[in-house]
Design goal:
Number of strands: 10
Helix content: 10-25%
Strand order of the largest sheet: 1-2-3-5-6-7-8-9
CATH architecture: Beta Barrel
Structural class: mainly beta
Number of helices: 2
Order of helices and strands: HEEEEHEEEEEE
CATH superfamily: Lipid/polyisoprenoid-binding, YceI-like
Distance between the termini: 20 Å
CATH class: Mainly Beta
Strand content: over 45%
Radius of gyration: 17 Å
Length: about 180
């Protein structure tokens, strides 16, 4: 976590001259949902960090994998030890850009497309997903929901529990930003 804070602080310091353009969120909420006939699995964390540059459209998210909380402690243990291997791959990170040409300095709700690389479980994969950015009183908030195929990030599901875990999980991200 100390490295995450240092990285985020460094990011903010290197762009401090553009502070009016950079907004950050230190309590980004990330969740995922997996539905199968046997059992639904969902987890959530509000310990993600995020930044958005209103001028360039650059978007960044990072979360410590072991901060996700489950309804059942055993699910959380399996998630961290067997599937995401959070000791070996402690973070999931997204670096991307809003590819639509819009003026995020104006209040309003904007449906946008974000393209970038999700790094998770030691694998980088490019995603192009829809998101909603709402600007109110000059402050942006962003939400998105997209699917991640576990095999794309080399996350293996043991044959014994293959019916309990979906091959594709729905990921939701919510961030409310403040000026950096």
């Amino acid at each position: 976590m100390k490295h995450l804070v240092t990285l985020f602080a460094g990011l903010l310091l290197t762009i401090s001259c553009f502070a009016q353009e950079i907004f950050s969120c230190r309590n980004t909420t990330l969740s995922f949902f997996s539905a199968t006939p046997m059992e639904d699995i969902d987890a959530v964390t509000s310990k993600g960090v995020s930044a958005i540059n209103l001028k360039t459209g650059a978007v960044y998210f990072k979360v410590a994998v072991n901060t996700f909380k489950f309804k059942k402690q055993l699910m959380e243990e399996h998630f961290n030890e067997n599937y995401l291997e959070s000791d070996k791959y402690p973070h999931a990170e997204f670096k991307g850009k809003i590819i639509d040409i819009i003026d995020l300095h104006k209040d309003g709700t904007y449906n946008v497309t974000v393209e970038g690389t999700l790094s998770m479980h030691g694998v980088d994969k490019v995603y192009r997903e829809k998101a909603t950015v709402t600007v109110q009183d000059g402050k942006p908030a962003a939400t998105t929901k997209f699917n991640v195929r576990l095999a794309d990030h080399h996350i293996k599901i043991p044959t014994l529990v293959v019916k309990n875990i979906a091959e594709v999980v729905e990921v939701t991200v919510k961030a409310t930003y403040s000026p950096s």
